[in-house]
Structures are given as structure tokens and as C-alpha cells.
């Protein structure tokens, strides 16, 4: 008995020593964090950094409910309600994902700093259910809730699948995560795809100003200022846009003062027919969430176990179930906020929890949320370039630890090529039938699938 206990303690000591060694190696590589995952900054710093997370995620949080409300033919009041509910659900699920709740085996949340929000991957099937299939908004909510049960079920199969994600695959997925988001950042820089003034000199100048401020403060700022560089850059850019007439304050006056979520406000229709179009979306979400979790583990210097990643996928499914019930939509892990961690050197989960509290609180005050929602897109674009670039950089650094023999070079090259190709020319795969269209419609999921398949098919050659 004593011998077994000694061996067990020895194993624990070795694991702790390995973790300390890995942390020191990362710090020597120039990746030292100001706030590590278990650190608790003071209340003021936590609030400021939490609000920074909210600002960088806000565009994605409000965009999807706006689109869905338009599909459903909602008026101003119902659209505003849907946006407020999206903020509330995003806040609650961000807290759960960042903290982690529940017993082992049924735990929800990976316990790493994460921001959750509505996902664009469900927009196309939403249109099919609401309009083409005649399910309306009630069919959309019912279909996504049934689909969420599928994702929760799939979370229990993530752990055995993680053996198919060696470093060459995970590094490639992390790099793709940042690279495939670059078109989004440059859409913001230009002023938004389809904007009349897209790419105008003033839009480029605003984005450049924010970009330069963030770089300067991040590199030369003090330990207190550096982590808030993104927030400061965005605030300065926003203020500069006001006298230039780029901010429409009339939208604030039109917003309600208070809004509270209600269960099944728009009704719900649990018809299995309306769940089928969302199956591919949930499969893609599982793949992408695994990639985001691995990315966050890398940039927080807190490697996640297979079980942690499964818990993260389960939080996605849980959020996607309660979101439609309250009048929002399915949620997913936001990859763009992972870029804030290495950029601001802040990996504290307390900060992400604070961001969740801010989001949930803002949902009750639509006027406050509107102030952020009218932020000119070039401001967000200047920050987005750096955020997404740091995610790509984290992937490249992860790949630098992989031995680049012929096999691994083929895996990385093919995966990145196809992932970026689908991102830049999505119409190429638009004609794929059924579930294949859903799986390959995202550059991240397409590249990940290619990496997984090649990792299985290409056998290691014996060293000569």
C-alpha cells in the first residue's frame, strides 16, 4: 500500500514538475503573461479587461440576431429584444464555459477564459427552416434546440477522438483559426462588406490609427496599460469617429431603456424536420470548438486534457439549448477573443467571467448596448487584424515544435491550402450535396477535416 501511494505521489510530483518546466520554457520563448489563468487582478483592472473582451466580441454577438430577425420579418421592438437576449445568453454561457460547473462526467465548461456568442454557421439553415420549409421563427427555435441535444451527446465522444489530434494537426488548426478570420478583419477595416464607402481613405486611416495605438501600447506600455491596449485603441478610434460624422446616435434614442428575457416569447415547434438542416452546423461547431479550445490552451499556457475539451463542447451544446428557449439562437465558442490573450498578455479566467457578467448586465439596458453596437467597423478592424494575427502566430509557434518531415509538411500544406481556399472562394463548395456542404462551407472545418484524414492515411516512415 505504502509503495503504491509513494508511486502515486511520485507521479503527481513529476506532473507538477513537468508543468512548471513547460511554463518556464514558454516564458523564455517570450510568451510571458501578465495575468495567468488563476490570477485575480484587482476589481478595476478586471472590469476594464472584461469590457475589452466585450468590445471585441460585440460585432459578432449582434450581427447574427439582426440577420435572423430580418429573416423572420421582425419589427424594431422584437429585433431589439432578440439582440438583448443574445447578449444575456452569451454572458451566462461565457461564465459557465470560463468557470466550469457540475460533477465529473457531467461537467459543463472547460474552465478556461472564453467568450461565447451566436454563430454565423447556423444562418443558412435558419433561412431554410424559417422561409423555405415554412417553419417560421418557432421552427427555427425548435430545430436548433433539438440539434443542441445532438451536440451535447457528441461531447461524450470527443475524448476518444482526441488521439487523432497530434501536434501537427492541432498546430495547423490553430494557425488556420487566425488565417481564416483575416477576411473578416479586412471587411471591418474597409467599413463592412457592401458599404458605399468601403475602403475609403478615412476608413483605412481610422483602422490604421487603432492598429498603431494597440501595437505601441502593447509593446511600450506599462504592466498595467499593456493588457488594456486593445480597449484604449478602440475607445480612441471611436471618439475620433464622432466629429467625423461616422456615429449615428439616433439609434440610441430609438432603443428601449429596459428589456428582460422571457421563456418562449416567440413560440417553439419541436418538429424533427426542422432539426435536420442544423445537423451539419452542429458537427462543424464540434470540430471548431475543439480547435478553439486547443488554441486557448496554447495561448493561456494551460494545456487542456481531453476531458476539458469535451466539457467545452458540452457548454456549447448547453448554450445552444437555452439560447433558443429564451428567444436568441445557438451559441459557439468565439475564436476571435482567443487572440486577445497573447496580444494583451492576460489569461485570467476571472476577466472572462467579468466579461460574461458585463454582457448579461448590458442585456437589461438596450440603450447601453446600442452605444457599442453603433461603433464604426473600421475601429474594430484595426484591432481585429492584430487579434486574429496573434492566433495565427500561436499556431505557427506550435508548429515550430513539430518535426517537418515529408509527411508532416504534406499535412500542413494541404490543410492550410484547402482551408484558406474555401475561405477565399466559398462558392467552390457551394454545390456539394447535403451534409458535405455544411462540413466544407467553413475554412476552419474544411482544413481540420483534411488534416485529420491525412494524419490517418499518411503513415510515418522509418528513420534511415
Which helices and strands, and how do they pair?
Blueprint: H1 2-28, H2 43-72, H3 76-99, E1 116-118, H4 123-132, H5 136-154, H6 158-161, H7 167-179, H8 182-190, H9 201-220, H10 229-241, H11 250-254, H12 272-275, H13 279-299, H14 306-326, E2 331-333, H15 340-344, H16 349-362, H17 366-373, H18 377-399, H19 406-424, H20 434-440, H21 443-457
Helix pairs in contact: 2-3, 2-4, 2-16, 3-14, 3-16, 4-5, 5-13, 5-14, 7-13, 7-18, 7-19, 7-21, 8-18, 9-10, 9-18, 10-18, 13-14, 13-20, 13-21, 19-21
What does this structure look like?
InterPro entries: NCS2, UacT-like, Xan_ur_permease. It is a single chain. The chain is mainly alpha-helical. The chain has one domain. The chain is built from 21 helices and 2 strands. A two-stranded antiparallel ribbon has the order 1-2. Helix 3 runs antiparallel to helix 14, helix 5 packs across helix 13 and helix 8 packs antiparallel against helix 18. The longest helix has 30 residues. It is globular, with a radius of gyration of 22 Å. The mean pLDDT is 81.
